[in-house]
Amino acid sequence: MIKVFGKIRYHWQPDIALSIAYWSLTISIFFIGWILTFEKTRIYWLTFIIWSIFLFFCILGMHRHFWIEDDKEHLHIVSLWRKHRADIPISSITKILVSYHGIIIFSDKWEHGRIYYMRKGHRRPFIKDISNCLTFNAEVEDIRQIIYEKKVGGNYENGY
Predict the structure, then answer these.
(1) pLDDT at residue 97 above 70?
(2) Which of 36, 45, 67, 93 is at 20 to 30 A from 112, Cα to Cα?
(3) Residues in contact with 75: Cβ distance below 8 Å, sequence separation at least 6, in sequence order
(4) Phi and psi dihedrals of 140, rounded to 5?
(5) Coil, strand, or helix at residue 84?
């Protein structure tokens, strides 16, 4: 939970496989910069360019967060990728499943839910703040772990 410009942001990450791939590639850019630094006996200008690319990708990777509007009627989900962005009314949330690694939000838009991986320091205050909203009337349920749904035939099998 980070407060920026008067708004409290709750950071999240996409699924674990995508997060590991993204952050591994981002950190490898940093090490390429170090390798170029140790290859030269003086300061090499290309190293600074590569490190600035690394910082750019770090900032992009951290640009995934929720924030609740001041009037507490909308939940804004911010992401770099358009498919993860959303602005949903809090009254349309039907259920929130909370696990050790993240949350699953069900709403009128998402019948099968959306998974957001969050640290405990962001997950608990988010659940507390969204539960305190006047228009929030969904149930919050604790589950052990998040298991993906499989589509079998035309139906979904819940793995929660």
Answers:
(1) yes
(2) 67
(3) 66, 67, 68, 69, 86, 87, 88, 89, 90, 93, 130
(4) -110, 125
(5) helix
